[in-house]
Amino acid sequence: MKNTSTILTAVLGGLLFIGADGALAQVDYSVYGVADLSYGVFEQSGLARDVRFNSNSLSPSFVGVTGSYGFDDGWSVAAVAETFIRFHDFKTGRRDSDPLLSRNAFIALRSNDYGALRFGRLQTPIFDTTNRFNALGNSPLSPAIRQLFFSGNIEGVDGDFYWDNAVGYTSPNFDGLSFNLMHAAQKNEERGSYQGGSVVWSVGLLSLEAAAQNVHVNDGIKDPTRETTWQLGSSYNFGFARVFGLYSQVRDRGLDARSKLASAGVSLPLGPGSLLFQVGSSTTAGAAIDRKHTTISSAYLYEYDSATDIYVIGMDDRVRGQSSGQSVALGVRFKF
């Protein structure tokens, strides 16, 4: 909890500092977020079926506040505080063990010419790439998100997709090319060092990104974690449809296992809305591991207005040797 309190104090202190200078003008505030509420049947391969309300079928629900102060020479300081929310049990966080500010929570120093430097709880470059280059975005029912982040550390990545005590740098945009670097020193039960980075290139209708991360955790009790992940993502907008591709490799030296994950998808305007389709396949091999995982998901999204989407989403999830799982949900997403 000491780690969480430090982040909370720094971010709220930053917001109060910016607010104290409000009389000097050039101060910008905003409150924003996503409210996603659905009802359906949720089942992943090998687990029991659950019928319930859900808060993140298409996008995780969250609320955030940001404040920034701009200087005349192009520099600015900002503070961001965000937390996930769960409507089905009226709690914050993705799970009970999450900190109060469970999403991004950082202070930042930005420059038009030199980029941005952030300190606090940050989203990892690997998660950013996975979110950007699949048709279903950050939905937990997306094959890419599910297999890389919600299928356990045997198949997916270690170290979560938000890192505390992190420092991150984002470069300016050099004619469509930019890069990100990130380092975190975790404490308590996640004690260790985490590094990540990515390079993004966008030209015209084509976008490409390469990302990598290294996670080393050693709490002195459990077996140490030594894992390296790299990833390639791409998308192209044909006008009548946008296509996505994603390929990842995860090497876990502690478990002596290597995973290969591939995913492809398409976003296609259809009638009054859009059809989203994504397929993902992964294999994990090691001294005592031989796993194959296939997930197919699709959604139909109707934009009721600029802030409100109505959708239906489904997923078929299969791990070799386990029972298959089928999920389907009807929901509404409100962005503010």
Describe the protein in words.
The chain is mainly beta and 336 residues long. The chain has a single domain (36-60, 114-162, 170-335), classed as Porin (Beta Barrel), CATH 2.40.160.10. Helices cover 10% and strands 57% of the residues. Strands 1-3-4-6-7-8-9-10-11-12-13-14-15-16-17-18 form a 16-stranded antiparallel β-barrel. A hairpin with a 2-residue loop joins strand 15 (273-286) and strand 16 (289-303). The longest helix has 19 residues, at 2-20. The protein is globular, with a radius of gyration of 20 Å. The model has no long low-confidence stretch (mean pLDDT 91).
What's the helix and strand layout?
Layout: H1 2-20, E1 27-42, E2 50-54, E3 62-70, E4 75-86, E5 91-92, E6 105-111, E7 115-123, H2 125-132, H3 143-149, E8 162-170, E9 177-186, E10 192-203, E11 206-217, E12 225-237, E13 242-252, E14 257-270, E15 273-286, E16 289-303, E17 308-319, E18 325-335
Antiparallel strand pairs: 1-2, 1-3, 1-18, 3-4, 4-5, 4-6, 6-7, 7-8, 8-9, 9-10, 10-11, 11-12, 12-13, 13-14, 14-15, 15-16, 16-17, 17-18
Major sheet: 16 strands, antiparallel, barrel
Total domains:
1
Order of helices and strands: HEEEEEEEHHEEEEEEEEEEE
SS element count, helices: 3
CATH class: Mainly Beta
Low-confidence stretches: none
CATH topology: Porin
